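Re: that chain you flagged

S.,

Sorry for the slow reply, it's been a week of failed gels. I finally had a moment to sit down with the sequence you sent. For the record, here it is as I used it:
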Amino acid sequence: MLWEALDKKVTALLVEDAVESVKLRGAKLELKAAGQVGWLFLSALRTVYRKTLTQDAEIRKLRDEVAALQERQLLMKETIESAVTRCDQMKARCTALAVRVAKQKSRQKPKIPSAVQVRALVRKENWDP
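Prediction finished late last night. Pasting the structure tokens below so you have them in one place:
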């Protein structure tokens, strides 16, 4: 029962309790108790070693994931910087074109319709003032 509990979850307190529970009486019992304590420590070591291997593999996996995410972050940063630069260029171009169109419109004289154009418009059947 004790060994199954150790295989499931090993803590320092559990190992200490298990060692204290082993009674040392007589020479044969001392050897048996020493063997039980040794087996207890070996079982604890095996469990901790397995956990360590699992955690090491998880750490490697997480480090690889972090490296991939850092690469993606750098790529996204460069993409955003490029888009911002392009946006600024387009804003400057739009402003220049708007100024150019405004200048051209201000140079044009307003067109006043001729009398012939006004009469032609008024004579249409669907004309509605």
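What I noticed first: The radius of gyration is 44 Å.

Talk soon,
D.
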